[in-house]
Amino acid sequence: MQLPAVAEQAHIEDLRLGDVPMQQEVELVSIDLPVELAEPLLERGVLPGCRICPVQSSPGGDPVVSVDGSLLALRRETADCLCVRLVSPFQDVG
Amino acid sequence: MDAFSSTCESCAQHREQSLVRLGLSPDRWDYLVALAGNPNVGKSTVFNELTGLRQHTGNWPGKTVVRAEGVFGYEGKRTKVVDLPGTYSLQAVGVDEEVARDFVLFGRPDVTVVVVDSTRLERNLNLVLQILEITDRVVVFLNLMDEARRNGIALDPSRLESELGVPVVTGTAREGIGISDLLEAVHEVATGRRKTSPYRVQEHAPDIEVVVSELSSIVLAAFPDVPNTRWVSLRLLNGDAAVQEAVRSGELGQLSRDDSGEVIRDTPEPERARVLDAATRLRWELPADFQDIVTARAYARAEAVASHAQKKGLVKAAFTFDRRLDQLLTSRLLGFPLMLLILGVVFWLTIEGANVPSSMLATLLVDQGHSWLKALSASAGLPWWLDGFMLDGVYLATAWVISVMLPPMAIFFPLFTLLEDFGYLPRVAFNLDSMFKKAGAHGKQALTMCMGFGCNAAGVVSTRIIDSPRERLIAIITNNFSLCNGRWPTQILVATIFIGALAPPHLGGVVSAAAVVSIALLGVLMMFLSSWILSRTVLRGEAASFSLELPPYRPPRLLQTLYTSIIDRTLIVLWRAVVFAIPAGAVIWLISNVTIGGGSVAEYSVQWLEPLGLLLGLNGVILLAYVVAIPANEIVIPTILMMTVLVTPELADQGAGAGVMFEEDSLVTTGALLHAGGWTLLTAVNLMLFSLLHNPCSTTIYTIYKETRSIKWTALATTLPVFMGVIVCFLVAQIWRLAAV
Ligand SMILES: Nc1nc2c(ncn2[C@@H]2O[C@H](COP(=O)(O)OP(=O)(O)O)[C@@H](O)[C@H]2O)c(=O)[nH]1
Ligand SMILES: [Mg+2]
Predict the structure, then answer these.
(1) Chains A, B: CB contacts under 8 A, how many?
(2) What b-and-e string marks burial along B123-134, b requiring 16 or more CB atoms within 10 Å of the CB?
(3) Top mutation candidate among B35, B45, B123, B568 for ligand 1, by most atoms within 8 Å of CB
(4) Does the structure show a pLDDT above 90 at B154?
(5) What residue numbers bound the domain in which A37 lies?
(6) CB A39 within 8 A of CB B295
(7) pTM for the whole thing?
(8) Which ligand is nearest to the Cα of residue B41, counting in written order?
(9) Which of B97, B138, B188, B453 counts the most CB atoms within 10 A of its CB?
(10) Which of A35, A46, A58 shows the shortest C-beta gap to B335?
């Protein structure tokens, strides 16, 4: 589902959370998933406009992200459906 | 009434002295209070504080799967509390959401307490706002204030209170802080002394607003007493089946009834139908993505309210310790080895620690207790069959089960609960998720698997945390591959006698623990394998997307943990084992003493099963024991020992007579006995395998049926493990014998 983005930036629309390096904080632009799959994410605070930061990856290569002060484990496929944009070139740990 | 007059010693707060915890006495009450909230925010902890009960708490989302109820007295009034399952919203389609929503809406609680995690205000407020839409009798409890303080989060409760329009109380439930304020607030709202004016959505996006207002006025005409017609309209437009049904049956009109005794008009059928028709018609006038728009707005509102209540200017110290620990426990390199190590240490502590108390109990209950009772019955002159049936059958079976099971459980369960409280289980789920994903299963299946290590029936119930039906079925069907505690005594005993004995004495414990861990791991592998097969055959489908919250690590409270795990888990499981051991003891004695032309029923059965048993690398005794022990796995070992004595001629004078559950407590003698019964290392290994891979116990089968409501899935879940067990044992036996030649 496409939730209203805070600031549309068409040219980097392609950046997905799955591609973001560890410890790099980004801002969520939209969630490219059908509503019933997006809902559990929204409920856990993964909302467009929020700051989100991959903090580590599992033995199987799936990311853990820090969002709204808590840790959320995602599957890689899910992370690839989250469109994000960079907020700062600096590294910022959660 | 006694409970009313006694004051509670453990209360720190003086105002709490008028709180009387009444535990379970749900016969009558003055007020009904519902506890709602996100998962893992401390609802059950609040519930326990209020009622004095010991509802299970644990540090992972989704463990309150059944609704718990309790009662407390406050200022002379009895209040019934219902602990609802944790949900992030009331709108999603899961079982838990439905239970929680239905209760808040149709259970008509006098007060709904929403427990909120203060460190995650924004996300929690989303649920608070949804509940405020349904009912105005709400108290918000900002829990986990200690964690908020530790993490540099400062809140402004009075600001929140004025924005939400309902009482807001802060506290740390685990330390009992804030409970007295909560009681006071609940009491004021329940008695109506305090009026609330809940925050509600005033205006939707323009095109939606038009439709909602129109439907809302139709609802109002039909149900003039319904407090929030706008919410009802929105739910109807969303096609919410429960609300539609409430309109159809007219129940909606009754929801607003309070105790003031005023008569509420029943809405006649044509008016009800008109509401539903209007909803169907108006839905077409809405934009296609109207649900998305409404949802997005709702989250934006929660965010706004949260940001107002959060004091600015404080640095948010990240949860550094947690991060460090996570980097270790879920790291690519060390995640798995540490998991195995932790599991190994838990089993090793259980094996080593249970040894001595187990043989002490056996001496006390089996040796001394039994002879003492025998002497007593002889002096009372009981007939041989009654004496045999009662003492040699029923009593010995029970005594055996207690001495074999109690010590390991009293060690394992507290250890397991400590890990659970600490927050380790979700990390296990996370580590294993990639494997579950490959198997086409849900990541949370790892959590239900962990529950299964305790008890498969509990594991099956806990699959409710998996919201997609296909993955949930897979989790239910494969839960039996988690080696439940009823099967460890078998594993531990056999591993100690046959495998640990191969190692030098000082390493025996470690080697036995390693053997048991390997069996448990094999179970996990079989779970992956069968999940994989299922998701490619009868339960075809792709793994749904999955997200799992990793809760903060929380230091477990030792005493509390010890208490709850002993009471909740150990004694309950032990009681169940005893209940099943009693009839099993009777059956064993009967089949050993009822003779048909020369031999006993047991002897005939063993002879008949022997060829099949040998083919599987087992023997007839073991197979018969598994038939007798279908009600409960716990009694397999006692049954095997007793029947081995019976059918091995050289041992016939060892027991006190046919069908006496064997009385030896020392491992050496048990080992000698089994060797004399023709046991080899292969028998031992295959018994361990078969004990892992065979049908679930009767309780689990019944639970599976209750959860799936399907004979087909229950039958599959029952036969699949036996089928696998037979194949595995057969193959191992053949390969073993080939290798031995
Ligand atoms: N630090 C801290 N931990 C708490 C508090 N309240 C509950 N907990 C812990 O949080 C975890 C979840 O609690 P539980 O009552 O099971 O949550 P529920 O899922 O909402 O029922 C448990 O480990 C509790 O011991 C609190 O006020 N402070
Ligand atoms: Mg709970």
Answers:
(1) 127
(2) bbbbbbbbbbbb
(3) B45
(4) no
(5) 5-86
(6) yes
(7) 0.74
(8) 1
(9) B138
(10) A58
